[in-house]
Each structure stands twice: as C-alpha cells, then as structure tokens.
Amino acid sequence: xxxxxxxxxxxxxxxxxxxxxxxxVIGDVxxxxxxxxxxxxxxxxxxxxxxxxxxxxxxxxxxxDSWNDLHFNKKLQHGNDLGERMKxxxxxLFKKGYEKVVIIGSDLLDLNETIIENAFKALDxxxxxxxxxxxxxxxxxxxxxxxxxxxxxxxxxTETVYEQTLSxxxxxxxxxxxxxxxxxxxxxxxxxxxFKKYF
Length: 199
What we know:
This protein is 31% helix and 18% strand. The radius of gyration is 16 Å and the shape is globular. The chain is an alpha/beta fold. 37% of the residues are buried. The protein contains six helices and seven strands. The protein has a single domain (4-198), classed as Spore Coat Polysaccharide Biosynthesis Protein SpsA, Chain A. A hairpin with a 5-residue loop joins strand 5 and strand 6. The mean pLDDT is 95.
C-alpha cells in the first residue's frame, strides 16, 4: 500500500488576521465567520480521503478545534514565506517515508474529496498534480519526489503564481486538475448561496 499524506495549510482563525481582503468589505467578524465555515468544510472533506491527513497551522497548534485531534496529525508551518513553508512541510513528510504527498489550502468551497483522490491517482503516472485557481494561483499541489524549485516564487498571492510554477516543471510530467474558485474577495463569495447574507 502506497503511503499517502495530505497536508492542509490553515491559518489560525483569529479575528482581524484572516481573509483580510474580504474583511475590508464585510468586516473582521464576518470574514472570520466565512473562514471558519471554509475550515469546517475542508476538515470534513479531508477526513474522507484515504490517506494520512496533516494540518499545518500558521501560528500555533490548537487542540479540540475544527481539526479533529483523533484524525489529524497537527504540525506548525516553518519558513519565511509561503514557498519555504510549503517546501518544509513536503520535506518533513517525505522524510517520514510517504511516497505521495498532496497539499491543499483551507479556503475553497468547491474542493471535494474526489478531486483530492484524483490528484493522488494522477501521481501514479505523473511527477506532479496541480489544481489551478481562478485567481492565478493554485489550490492543490501533489508530488512523489520533492522538487524544491517549484517553491521559489518571487511574489506569492499574485496572478502569475500558477504560470511561474508550471515554468519550473517543463521537464516533468504534470497532471492538471480542474480550475476552482479560491475565496479571497467579496466577488469570490457571490456564487454561493450559503454566503448570501454577506453581500
């Protein structure tokens, strides 16, 4: 049986520190509410995937929260920017002996367990699996060997992150998943009835 690990990168849900672009329009309290909803969704789907799930917190490890202590291995992100933090997380799990590692964020309502399972399957025949986000970034990255160069991106959070990442993988086989909507702004909320009260 292939050893598979799923990394979820999550911000600690603290008032005024998450979904800041969204908060400018709907306020800190509402932005925190939205983020907690997204965290619960992500935790729920991650538990359904046939793999070992890890949550890597941004600030501190929290017990008895949305990430069930009995199900999730809990770690802390380390590094100076998002790329370094992701690279370190991948590296730590490959060192533990995992043969396939997939990372996702915690702010996509469209993400489901089938997409994550497909990413793991794609790694049977490809070096990399990647899920592009509508904002020009990506919501999922999977690999079976660490390719550190993919994390050397000049400006994270810009609309060229996905393109820059692909440019570093021209000698690798890459499986591209469907494009999804990453929720960062008020416009990103509008397709979802569950968030209707915020706009």
